[in-house]
Amino acid sequence: MRSSQEKRHLQSLKRRARNRAAKSRIKTETKKLKAAIASGDIAAAEMQFRLTMGLLHKAGRKRILHPNTAARRISQLARLVHQHKSTATPAS
């Protein structure tokens, strides 16, 4: 029979692994988004932004990240994409 302390420890290890994987994926996708912005590919940047935004929303909902942290990161990335989009299109 396992003690409740051992069970809680095993649960915390599983959660830690799952949370680390989610955070790592968010960081990877954020880097891909910033690379797409730097390369000047607006379409790829917008698609990557949608994917990254979804991951951040999900992480905030599941409390992997604090919801305000997720919202702040989404806002910052949206600002980057929007600034790049407005500078990339020539004013007529």
CATH-level-2 architecture: Up-down Bundle
Number of spatially distinct domains: 1
Number of separate helices: 3
Total DSSP E strands: 0
Give a quick set of tags describing it.
3 helices, mainly alpha, about 90 residues, about 85% helix, Methane Monooxygenase Hydroxylase, Chain G, domain 1
Q: What does this molecule look like?
A:
With 92 residues, the protein is mainly alpha-helical. The chain has one domain (4-88): Ribosomal protein S20 (Methane Monooxygenase Hydroxylase, Chain G, domain 1, Up-down Bundle). 85% of the residues lie in helices and 0% in strands. The chain contains 3 helices and no strands. The longest helix has 36 residues, at 4-39. The protein is elongated and about 70 Å long.
